[in-house]
Amino acid sequence: MGIAKLGYVGLDVTDLDAWTDLLGRTLGVDIVFDKIGTEDVALAALDVYKYRLALYPSAEDRPREVGWIVDSPSELDRITGRLTTAGFSVHEGVEEETELRGATHLRWFTDPVGYRVELAVGAAKARTGPARSVDASPGVIGLGHLVLASPKLDELRELYESVLEFRLTDYRAPGLYFLRCNRTHHSIALARAETTSIHHLEIEHDSIDDVGRAHDRAKRDGVPVSIGLGRHMNDKAISFYIKNPSGFHLEIGCGGIEVDDDWVPHDFGTPDVWGHRHANGNPFAPSAS
């Protein structure tokens, strides 16, 4: 009970055309244009729901909101109480925001690093299945997880584990923690870094063949592959990463494991079974001794 899954992410972006080209041409994702008030927004349809990624034209590239789906109105009230007790101010979403999200209830607060975190009840299905080009089908099937890096790692862990009741799945000492809110290995990972940023969003694909086809299209389209194909040690996902037009990574992956309540958190040590060669330095690499 409580938070059920990662629902959506909103981004302010300076180059909407580059984003829509990346999502549409390279990843085969349908883009729908809408408005919230007088503001334009591009909605990426990753699955059967209204959207998972919202892109707002802006003079600055920055996260706009991270949305979590909550089981029920009563659970929303319970989590609101926990946040208030912990010192967070919780606000009601306005009608236009709630409608755009396809939700029935919407509240939000500001996390320790200044990001807007939303809690939504309900998620409107907008289609029986997203449209995909032949070489992308079935391709993308949803939004998997995000990795948030910040010098305020301790405060973020307190929020997500103690207040929002996420469970620790595993970690790599001294500063990378993988947290879950359902059976999926992780829906968010928290990392220590000198500056705050989203390190990456994971776009979930249906199979290794879909990941491979996306890799071929990225090469064809000249999309920078920032981390090569590989398999992670902890969640066993096979993936590669591309640098998106806002400067952070999109992970293109499939095959992450699920865990149950008997899972024991542990330091998984080696980051990868194979691959995942970084084009530039790995900020989460173990320090040389």
Return the average pLDDT rounded to an integer: 94
Helix content: 10-25%
CATH topology term of the largest domain: 2,3-Dihydroxybiphenyl 1,2-Dioxygenase, domain 1
Total count of domains? 2
Task: Specify the CATH homologous superfamily of the largest domain.
Answer: 2,3-Dihydroxybiphenyl 1,2-Dioxygenase, domain 1
Runs in which pLDDT lies below 50 for 5 or more consecutive residues are: none
* Largest sheet descriptor: 9 strands, mixed
What is the structural class? alpha+beta
Radius of gyration using CA atoms only? 18 Å
Describe this structure in words.
The protein has about 290 residues and is of the alpha+beta class. It has two domains: about 120 residues, 2,3-Dihydroxybiphenyl 1,2-Dioxygenase, domain 1 (Roll); about 140 residues, 2,3-Dihydroxybiphenyl 1,2-Dioxygenase, domain 1 (Roll), CATH 3.10.180. It contains five helices and 17 strands. The strands form two sheets. It has a nine-stranded mixed sheet. Strands 2-3-4-1-5-8-7-6 form an eight-stranded mixed sheet. Strand 3 and strand 4 form a beta hairpin. The radius of gyration is 18 Å and the shape is globular. The mean pLDDT is about 95.
